């Protein structure tokens, strides 16, 4: 028996969240609607917020496409989103992919431009498109016309850091250098390569080899490299030379 319709914005209970996690990945969103009394849009939005995806891609049904063709040209994208339980961005993306346009070009509002200016430098473009309900190409175009650019997330290397890198590189492990500089091992390796610093051939110690043998069955090459302070490439080559193989789990017959 379906529950009575819940007030918009009502907090989700632990039981409802548990139900969402169990049924949504199986594509049973409407069943959640019936059991919780929430709208389909609310269920899908909650799943999206929690990072819960269906195991199969949610394809558009013939009726949904028909509704899209009927209402989208009239500028009623929000109505389509509400009736199909899809996000506004998804509705617009589908319309553009099918070549369905509104009868009039929808101008960007001052508030949209303001939000774009705030988010574009540091946030993922796809995420911005979803928030604005605009196609990604449109977001990129307006950002370009407004002179907006992405901000480099990692700080540039200073002369002092470069000097310290050159001093430490020949005699210390990547992990030790990375820790002293406050950078990742990958960043240190890339910078050394750019500066033309060649790493002297380091002999693998018995301790390192034993650690590789111990960790390889259950750890990735990346995790092992981080643990011993070597590059992933060097670690993988050493694993091959040692002839190591991952353990295969044998289930009961």
Fold and architecture overview:
By secondary structure, the protein is mainly α. It folds into 4 domains: 1-58; 62-145, no CATH class; 154-200; 203-247. The chain has 15 helices and no strands. The protein has helices spanning 14-23, 29-36, 40-49, 62-71, 77-84, 88-97, 110-119, 125-132, 136-145, 159-168, 174-181, 185-195, 206-215, 221-228, 232-242. Helix 4 (62-71) packs antiparallel against helix 5 and helix 11 crosses helix 12 (185-195). The chain is extended. The model is unreliable at 249-253 (pLDDT under 50).
List keywords for this structure.
about 55% helix, disordered C terminus, 15 helices, single chain, about 250 residues, extended, mainly alpha, 4 domains
TL;DR of this structure?
By secondary structure, the protein is an all-alpha fold.
From the alpha carbons, calculate the radius of gyration and give it in angstroms. 27 Å
Write down the domain tally: 4
Shape: extended
Mean pLDDT: 79
Strand and helix order:
HHHHHHHHHHHHHHH
Percentage of residues in helical conformation: 55-70%
Span from first to last CA? 42 Å
Q: Structural class, please?
A: mainly alpha
- How many beta-strand runs? 0
Show unreliable segments: 249-253
Note the main sheet: none
Report the sheet-strand fraction: under 5%
What's the total helix number? 15
Q: How are the SSEs ordered, and which strands pair?
A:
Elements: H1 14-23, H2 29-36, H3 40-49, H4 62-71, H5 77-84, H6 88-97, H7 110-119, H8 125-132, H9 136-145, H10 159-168, H11 174-181, H12 185-195, H13 206-215, H14 221-228, H15 232-242
Helix pairs in contact: 1-2, 4-5, 5-6, 8-9, 11-12, 14-15
């Amino acid at each position: 028996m379906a529950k009575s319709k819940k007030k918009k914005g009502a907090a989700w209970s632990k039981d409802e969240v548990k139900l969402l996690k169990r049924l949504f990945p199986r594509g049973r969103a409407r069943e959640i609607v019936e059991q919780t009394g929430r709208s389909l849009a609310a269920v899908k939005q909650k799943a999206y917020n929690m990072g819960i995806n269906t195991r199969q891609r949610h394809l558009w049904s013939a009726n949904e496409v028909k509704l899209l063709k009927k209402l989208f040209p009239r500028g009623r994208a929000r109505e389509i989103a509400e009736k199909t339980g899809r996000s506004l961005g998804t509705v617009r993306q589908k319309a553009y992919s099918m070549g369905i346009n509104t009868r009039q070009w929808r101008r960007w509002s001052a508030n949209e431009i303001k939000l774009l200016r705030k988010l574009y430098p540091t946030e993922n473009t796809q995420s911005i498109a979803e928030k604005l309900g605009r196609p990604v190409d449109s977001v990129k175009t307006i950002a370009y016309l407004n002179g907006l650019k992405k901000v480099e997330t990692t700080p540039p290397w200073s002369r002092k850091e470069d000097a310290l890198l050159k001093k430490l590189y020949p005699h210390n492990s990547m992990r030790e250098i990375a820790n002293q500089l406050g950078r990742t091992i990958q960043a240190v390796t890339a910078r050394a390569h750019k500066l033309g610093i060649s790493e002297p051939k380091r002999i693998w110690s018995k301790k390192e080899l034993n650690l590789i043998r111990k960790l390889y069955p259950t750890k990735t090459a990346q995790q092992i490299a981080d643990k011993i302070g070597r590059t992933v490439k060097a670690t993988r080559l050493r694993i091959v030379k040692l002839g190591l193989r991952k353990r295969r789990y044998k289930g009961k017959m």
